[in-house]
Amino acid sequence: MIETRQPDPAETPVAIGACRAVTITAVSETGWWDTPRMMADIKAGGGAAACQWRMRFDPDNAAGSCSLIEVEGLDGVTRRILLDAGWNADYMAERFRATGVDRLLAEGGIDFLLLSHEHLDHFWGIEAVLRLAPAIPILVPGTLREEGLAWLRGGSFPEAGIANRVPHRGPLVRMLPGGVHRLMPGLASVTFDLPILLDIRGEQSLYANVAGEGMVCITGCCHQGVLNLVDYAKDHLECGGQVYGLYGGLHLAPFAGMSEEQAQTVRALGRYGFRRIAANHCTGAEAIALMRRLGYPVVGGSGRDGSDGTAHLGNGDSVRF
Fold first, then answer.
1. CA angle at residue 184 from 109 to 135, to 5 degrees?
2. In sequence order, which residues have a C-beta less than 8 Å from that of residue 7 and are 6 or more positions away?
3. Rg, C-alpha atoms of the chain
4. What is the maximum span of the chain, computed from C-alpha positions, in angstroms?
5. Any residues with CB less than 8 A from the CB of 170 and at least 6 apart, and which?
6. Distance (Å, whole) CA 295 – CA 165
7. N or C: fewer beta carbons within 10 Å in the chain?
8. Closest CA to 27 of 64, 62, 60
């Protein structure tokens, strides 16, 4: 399923094939419960430039980001991917039960876990996955720190007060920056190499080509910038000129309060002509509200299971592209 050759940056445009449809369920889009508490923990740990693996965070404030991606192939076969693993393992275990992901993991119904990036709210909940599927293949950014690799092996970090008690026993694939990784017909990943807060580097995002509809851009937090995310598809993927949908955290006003630069980014999204936008997680309420005022086709949610309101796709909600 996974093409193992090294990505070739000179191969442009890259053909990734096509799929019939993509359905994404927000298993949890709530990274943490209280933003002031989160910001206070970061400040106490040395600030945004300090290393997350040496910081202590309030465990009662931890939730996590995780999505189930179901790709229906042109052959009628559906393949499933888990995007990220959340933060609080016990909370994620509850979310897995609520969405049926626990059964899929236990029965081998998920092809692999893809880690978008190393931030704690996407990664520190890995034990919840490994309790059910310790040998699941995991695809990580090639920029992952040594601490991240140790975490997968069952590492503990006393300074941070955390431990992963279930070592990963399956294949581990490092997704190198510099080109397009074709994962299955109609789905590819790209690792963007850039520094991000809490002394972490790199984020990988997904691109799905839905036959007859166009490109769907799928992101965990989009630290590389949502305009860069979409422009990469247009510049490097054979099907990238026809943009269809957008899903995930867009890192626009994630801590409340939207800057003018962020507002300009939201306005610039209009030039792509998205026909469906399901933004959540680190996409702040002000950014969502501006999208709606601009008439963008934003998908709302139920507001259940801890999600803050119905303006965005929330916990347990699904979108189909």
1. 40
2. 176, 178, 179, 180, 181
3. 18
4. 53
5. 133, 134, 135, 136, 137, 138
6. 47
7. N
8. 64
**Placement of tokens 């993927």 in the chain:** 237
Give the CA-trace dihedral at 310, 314, 224, 242, to 10 degrees: -80
Residue 284 token pair = 């702040």
In contact, 190 and 204? CB cutoff 8 Å = yes
By C-alpha distance, which of 98, 111, 87 is closest to 38?
87
CB 28 within 8 A of CB 214: no
pLDDT for residue 4 is more than 50: no
What kind and span of H or E run contains 22?
strand 19-28
Closest to 236 (Cα-Cα) out of 8, 69, 1, 21 = 8
Q: What is the Cα–Cα distance from 199 to 7, expressed in whole angstroms?
A: 26
Cβ count within 10 A of residue 146: 9
Distance (Å, rounded) from C-alpha 125 to C-alpha 101?
Answer: 14
Mean pLDDT over the full length of the chain: 95
Token pair, residue 207, equals 């691109």
Selection from 88, 93, 152 nearest residue 118 by Cα: 152
- Residue spans of alpha helices (H) in 54-189: 89-99, 101-106, 120-123, 126-132, 146-152
At 97-148, the pLDDT tens digits run 999 999 999 999 999 999 999 999 999 999 999 999 999 999 999 999 999 9
